[in-house]
Specification:
Two copies of one chain form a homodimer. Chain A is an all-alpha fold. Helices cover about 60% and strands about 0% of the residues of chain A. The interface between A and B is large, with 52 and 53 residues. Chain A binds a DNA duplex through helix 2. Chains A, B: This is Helix-turn-helix domain-containing protein. Chains A, B: Keywords: DNA-binding, Transcription, Transcription regulation. Chains A, B: InterPro entries: DNA-bd_dom_put_sf, MerR-type_HTH_dom, MerR_fam, Tscrpt_reg_MerR_DNA-bd.
DNA sequence: TCTACGGTCTGTAGTTGATACAGGCTCAAG
DNA sequence: CTTGAGCCTGTATCAACTACAGACCGTAGA
């Protein structure tokens, strides 16, 4: 157990430390969300705490529904700390509006769907309120 | 203007009648959502009112957020009217629960996001509440 | 009749965000 | 020395479309 083992992480260690899927890490590297990590003599990827922090940032952003494109933007703003809070705010607000629009859409769907399902008799009969609703012009 | 023109529709006509994208119609045929239509002597697709009705059904279902897989199921129930209202109700209720779960997720995201954005100063400074929230463990 | 334009045909590639697998290599513990 | 876990690459798959490329057709106007 040498002192390298404190920070030198394998792919599976990074996955476990972040909760990210193993294959997804490689995917993030190919699409530039994560940097290409240094390699061992045998070509194995070698990660450290900075990778863990970055990937956690990505996971949290994804959790909040940011697209990879948006996350790329946020990472750029983090990497270049000369950028402004106002810029980040703009990205986050745009995303907030997206989320609110999605909620509105789903709420409309939920209303129509629950109203329609409520009209179902649940009978072993071929007449059905859901089908009728979908069939009507 | 012969009597065929009343019902014989080209691909673009079906698209316009339903609001469906031109290419999507062909896609729905390849995946079996729509039937392979009859062809003219020169191989052009020829649609009629039944196609319009079916595609409208598909569009409305999709509008309500049903997946193509679910729509395939609903179409099967419509095609075979010996199926029961109870079966349709089951599909629709399962989908309703999906929708409600998505709304719950997005509402959580919306809350976190709006709280965080509200803490932004909007300054031309590198300190930012959004970034801090994403960076913190 | 010519020409332009809009439509149609097929097959295939690209999109987003991963996930999975094949086939082979390496490493560490027992 | 074997076994099992992990690593490597490249490629295929998923949903649900969308968008070409390259060739053909059909009709309205000059």
């Amino acid at each position: 157990m040498d002192n390298r083992s404190v920070t030198a992480l394998r792919r599976v260690d990074l996955a476990r430390a972040t909760g990210c899927n193993l294959e997804t890490i490689r995917y993030y590297e190919t699409v530039g969300i994560m940097p290409d990590p240094p390699r061992t003599a045998k070509g194995y990827r070698s990660y450290d705490d900075a990778h863990v922090r970055r990937l956690k940032f990505v996971m949290r952003s994804r959790d909040l529904g940011f697209s990879l494109e948006e996350i790329r933007g946020l990472l750029g703003l983090v990497d270049d700390r000369s950028q402004t809070c106002a810029q980040v705010q703009t990205v986050a607000e745009a995303h907030l509006h997206d989320v609110q629009a999605k909620i509105a859409d789903l709420t409309r769907i939920e209303r129509v769907l629950s109203e329609t399902v409520a009209r179902c008799t649940g009978d072993a009969a071929p007449e059905c309120a859901v089908i009728d609703a979908l069939l009507e012009a």
